[in-house]
Design brief:
With about 80 residues, this protein is mainly alpha-helical. About 50% of the residues lie in helices and about 0% in strands. The chain is elongated and about 95 Å long.
Length: about 80
């Protein structure tokens, strides 16, 4: 009744290599190559990423300030009340 799970399909001309988890290095050259590469890529993209965030922050703070101002009552309206 059919094939076993490991032999479901027969693929030709495909070579698969495997490495034991005990032989792998989880973070090879992480500090010597990874961190400098991260800094280089961040420096290259900072001019594309930071300005929209700055603009959004300024618009957001301005909008919150205007909203708080609009909630206040005008004291000049209530000068003649007793």
């Amino acid at each position: 009744m059919g094939r076993h799970f490991g032999n479901l399909a027969r693929v030709r001309h495909v070579i698969a290599y495997g490495l034991s988890p005990f032989e792998q290095r989880a973070f090879p050259h992480f500090f010597s190559k990874g961190v400098p590469n991260l800094l280089r890529r961040a420096q290259a993209s900072v001019l594309r990423v930071v300005p929209p965030f700055v603009v959004f922050y300024l618009v957001y703070t301005w909008g919150n300030d205007e909203f708080e101002k609009s909630k206040r009552k005008n004291p000049a309206t209530y000068e003649n009340d007793k």
